[in-house]
Design brief:
Helix content is about 20%, strand content about 35%. It folds into 3 domains: about 25-40 and about 485-745, Alpha/Beta hydrolase fold, catalytic domain (Rossmann fold); about 50-145 and about 435-480, no CATH class; about 145-295, Methanol Dehydrogenase, Chain A (8 Propeller), CATH 2.140.10. The protein is an alpha+beta fold.
Length: about 750
């Protein structure tokens, strides 16, 4: 009798988890078909990236069709689209030239551009060719030795600036005469010594930093601005490289300051006169290099401009630099003492013979364009107004003052994240919508500024490419429509969108719901929250490519409902909306929990008692944070390449969004310091060569979880970096296994191999 009762008890515990049936090899195979790399093969004519002829009436592009890779030419005068050339004829010529078989619709060419009216130039690997379709002639182009990444060519093509041993030199391109401009530079305190953010050196082999040049020419080629970088005491982070010959790992390192570091790479700025071969220090104060070292220059303008950010990003300041003396003038200071200046809103354009400028700012609570007087730094007028977000300027007619810009949220009845192209007068009048279709629009303007290619799509509607007049947005001709017939035959259906008020009763939140292709409305499905709270971006897709080419669809095929939610604290809404996450990274999870509970109330198929979460990078932080912050809600989490403690993160990101100086908030919001709170099932993953988010953050979390005697899974992917970790096939499969076992409550196929 007791045995019978025990059996009954076990039965009732297990039943809810078996309601979706067993997960089979066939289920995994179906999920594999929905991986991004496979879906790309099922979608044709997806995107038009034009290469314009100089006058702008003609462009060429390539697209993957059912035949293969095809090149087309569009003539806007005749409104005709045709093959750019005979693919078979070119394949024969390339086969003969390359001494290997080339198939007509697998042409190994890139960077195809107009050379003249009747000729194209393109590259095959390292070789440039000239092709005349009319004559069917192919010539190998003899190029001048290309510049290295340690050289910078002046706009007039006369001078080459280059670096050697930390000093800056000039070379006359015609005479090859060289001039040394500086003598006090060194490899670790050098002029123009830019170092890629992701550059790693093999310390075990004695490698040195491989610098590239950073230099800014005036548009008349008479002046040169060069930063001098002092990195003599800059922090370096270490990693171990194991894919080596023999049995001893090698140490690799990369330059990376962390949040709160008192010693960082500093930059000073120097102005050089090309004719006189002398220079002066620009009287800008020394500044941490990670805050930005760039300059704006304009045709016919004897000045240069620099936007200086200060640590903590609460203030930015626009400086004008006299290119004769190196003296500076502060033009504008923008500050937000309680939060931050969003560096993603940076826009600066001179207009009206350099007497005025356009500036993008959130000073009225939204990202908008403003018109300023250059001499006084005073606002002349606000150009765009309203509860909408301006993404940036696409074009300015600097004579008339007409502006073309991308914005989202102008129409309150449409998804505020969709991008549309508008035009407006400099005085803020006559704002016009030029791309009316309810979609996200991505545009490419012709060189003559008369036309633009508009690729537009939504989460459910595949991409359509058309050509429009820039002046009025009138459609001239259709170019491509994405072919998704094979995708539909696979059973794909678009994600469902939703919107709902947050718990404050006033803020609208948006997201998507992704169901498996064999969805049964009578079943209850566990939920997986696909997260990346940003806060510099959004997660829910707004165009077709993002909607289909992701990790969510394959996860759903295993028997889950996957949701994307853009909670408060993420990007592209009001400043108030964005500021919610300031010094509270991961706060958007509050909205995630609220939304999923509300969705479960509305839809019977959503099981809010079985919720998992996954994310990569900042999303990986969110995924672990979710289990620590909401242990009674999130039961399973998979966290990859995560910045688990922002004190261990690349300096600019946490100092922008978490604040400076580093204070107790960093400690309080660290996954590492909160590791003992773990209750659910957690998998943490890192590539051991991640030079974006150093693997030590994940190692440190693993150490604290171990000390707290917590059960968790820990995967280190040998020789993977930040990006390759994300696409690692073994990890993809292990993530599937983890959710199937702990969220569905069933066993997964053993050692399924993703091809």
């Amino acid at each position: 009798m007791n045995r019978y009762k025990s059996t009954i008890l076990v039965f009732f515990v297990i039943v809810p988890f078996l309601s979706n049936g067993q997960v089979t090899v066939e289920d995994y195979a179906r999920a594999e078909k929905f991986l991004q790399r496979n879906l790309e093969k099922s979608i044709y004519n997806r995107w038009v990236e034009p290469t314009w002829e100089t006058h702008g009436n003609t462009f060429i592009y390539s697209v993957n069709t059912r035949n293969g890779k095809e090149f087309f030419k569009v003539n806007l005068t005749t409104k005709q689209k045709s093959a750019a050339f005979d693919h078979s004829k070119l394949a024969v010529l390339l086969t003969d030239s390359l001494k290997e078989e080339v198939k007509p619709y697998e042409l190994p060419i890139s960077r195809a551009e107009f050379l003249g009216k009747d000729e194209f130039t393109f590259w095959t690997k390292e070789t440039q060719w000239i092709y005349n379709p009319a004559k069917n002639s192919l010539l190998r182009k003899v190029n001048e030795p290309s510049l290295t990444d340690k050289e910078s060519l002046s706009p007039d093509g006369m001078w080459i600036a280059f670096i050697k041993d930390g000093n800056i030199y000039l070379k006359n391109k015609n005479s090859a005469e060289e001039f040394q401009l500086t003598t006090d530079g060194s490899p670790e305190n050098g002029y123009g010594h830019n170092l890629s953010w992701y550059f790693t050196r093999n310390d075990s082999k004695g490698e040195k930093n491989d610098y590239t040049i950073e230099a800014y020419w005036s548009n008349d080629s008479k002046k040169l601005i060069v930063p001098k970088f002092d990195r003599r005491n800059t922090r370096r982070l270490l990693m171990y490289k194991t894919d080596v010959e023999g049995y001893q790992s090698e140490i690799v390192s990369y330059e990376r300051e962390l949040a709160g570091d008192s010693v960082v790479t500093m930059a000073d700025f120097y102005l050089f006169d090309v004719a006189n071969k002398n220079g002066v220090r620009i009287d800008l104060p020394s500044n941490p290099a990670f805050l930005g070292t760039g300059f704006y220059t304009f045709d016919g303008c004897p000045k240069a401009y620099h936007i200086k950010y200060y640590r903590g990003y609460k203030t930015r300041e626009l400086f004008e630099i006299d290119l004769e003396t190196g003296k500076t003038r502060s033009v504008l200071v923008e500050s937000y003492p309680k939060t931050f200046v969003d560096l993603y809103t940076e826009t600066f354009e001179l207009i009206y013979d350099k007497t005025e400028f356009i500036w993008r700012s959130e000073q009225d609570g939204w990202s908008h364009l403003y018109r300023y007087d250059l001499s006084t730094g005073k606002i002349k007028n606000q150009i765009t107004k309203g509860n909408f977000y301006v993404y940036g300027i696409e074009h300015i007619d600097k004579k008339t003052g007409n502006i073309w810009f991308l914005a989202g949220g102008v129409d309150p009845n449409r998804d505020p994240y969709q991008k549309y192209l508008y035009s407006i007068n400099i005085d803020g009048k006559n704002q016009k919508l030029l791309t009316p279709e309810e979609a996200t629009h991505d545009i490419r303007i012709s060189p003559d500024k008369k036309f633009f290619v508009d690729n537009y799509s939504s989460h459910k509607d595949p991409n359509i490419a058309v050509v429009r007049n820039l002046k009025d947005g009138k459609t001239l001709m259709s170019v491509e429509k994405t072919d998704i017939d094979d995708l539909v035959k696979m059973g794909w259906k678009p994600a469902e969108t939703f919107s709902m008020l947050a718990d404050d009763g006033k803020t609208m939140l948006y997201g998507t719901i992704i169901k498996p292709t064999n969805f049964d409305p009578n079943k209850k499905y566990p939920v997986i929250d696909g997260t990346y709270s940003g806060p510099h971006t959004i997660r829910a897709p707004k165009n077709f490519s993002r909607s289909v080419l992701n990790m969510d669809l394959s996860l759903a095929e295993l028997g889950f409902v996957v949701v994307n939610i853009d909670g408060r604290g993420s990007a592209y809404r009001s400043k108030e909306f964005h500021d919610v996450s300031y010094a509270k990274l991961g706060y958007g999870l509050v909205d995630h929990v609220y939304v999923i509970k509300k969705l479960a109330e509305k839809y019977s198929y959503i099981d809010a008692d079985r919720v998992g979460i996954y994310g990569h990078s900042a999303g990986g932080y969110d995924a672990t944070r979710a289990l620590l912050l909401f242990p009674n809600f999130y039961k399973v989490g998979v966290s990859s390449a995560a910045d688990h403690d922002h004190r261990m993160e690349k300096i600019w990101w946490p100092e922008l969004y978490q604040g400076f100086p580093v204070d107790t908030q960093y400690h309080n919001q660290s996954n590492v310091t909160n590791a003992s709170k773990l209750q659910g099932h957690l998998m943490i993953v890192t590539g051991d060569l991640d030079n974006n988010v150093n693997p030590s953050a994940t190692y440190k979390l693993a150490g604290e979880l171990t000390k707290a005697n917590k059960d968790f899974e820990f995967i280190v992917l040998p020789n993977d970096n930040h990006d390759t970790c994300y696409w690692n096939k073994y990890f993809l499969r292990k993530r599937w296994d983890f959710f199937v076992k702990h969220l569905l409550g069933v066993e997964h196929p053993k050692e399924y191999k993703i091809k």
